[in-house]
């Protein structure tokens, strides 16, 4: 038992490192959106194609990712995912040299593809590494690793990419075309060194994971109870709680990305300088860390996973409405505090959605990874509404999403036939 406990702890540490990488790469988008909006001269809708290109890869690549995992297993699949991400970060180098927006988007898509493979392996791995009733606690630990990286990433890249951005934006209209191009080229080149470093780190981690002692977890067999329950099941579409959970995760990732990736641009739209606004995403993720700490202490000892999901959904509605009804820093802080509402949604949905899948676990996990495409669709919808209405009223998009999360917590996860 002691050996098993040590193996589990070691595995949690290794997966925690991977979740740190997920967070670091993912939450760089919150800086890339305003940064590329300036460097490539984009409107709101065009700038949110950053989130679209990154997250749509989960929809396109989740099923192929499950096939990769069938060939490689969870452990080697994680190494493959890291190497694919490294290809995506390399693409950023010629993109920055030529200030070509489509190349930036291609790099983001490839990074997202690598993350799709990693997430398809790591999320079910940590979920089934111990008792299902405490899965939300383990995922909360992973969430802290993810969001600590998310707090650090925008600050680091923001300090490099958005340095003196307010002065640059103010001066652009007074420059000649040649001077403007020169300034924007210099701005574009700022990301070259950070992405070279990221490429080296990702390749190093891929090698480390490949030679690590991370154990393989078997999901293709079922215990006797599940074998009896699932004996007539021939398709993943015969698990309605998974399908409803997939939609819940789609909407959740959408509102999580909106809260994290739009808040810097929204702060600027509310008249707050970039020098201050660049910290808002870190504040959002800091609020998520507080939520994860609550989950680690409280789940399942004091509160169940489904009850946490209900409370989170209600808090999301309250903060979304408050952001729309207030102005300035108060409104921006309401968006950042959505991080607290969002923190325990992912940890709660995963175990509720994949419970009882047995031999369908890998394909079920692929469905849930596909749902991360919500981070592509909903922020794009926000960007469209921000152009048509205004950046504040565009947050109306989060309200129905949180209401559906409440439905899944109350009833949706119980529907098994």
TrEMBL record:
UniProt keyword list: Cell membrane, Membrane, Transmembrane, Transmembrane helix
Localization of this protein: Cell inner membrane
InterPro entries: Glc/Gal_transptr_bac, MFS, MFS_dom, MFS_trans_sf, MFS_TsgA-like
Stretches assigned to the Major facilitator superfamily (MFS) profile domain: 11-417
Keyword Transcription regulation listed: no
Transmembrane regions: 12-36, 48-65, 77-95, 139-162, 192-211, 239-259, 279-299, 311-329, 335-354, 366-386, 392-410
CDD domains: MFS_FucP_like
Membrane topology summary: Multi-pass membrane protein
Pfam families in the record: MFS_1
Keyword Transmembrane: yes
Family label: Belongs to the major facilitator superfamily. FHS transporter (TC 2.A.1.7) family.
Function: Intake of glucose and galactose.
Protein name listed in UniProt: Sugar MFS transporter
The species this protein was found in: Gramella jeungdoensis
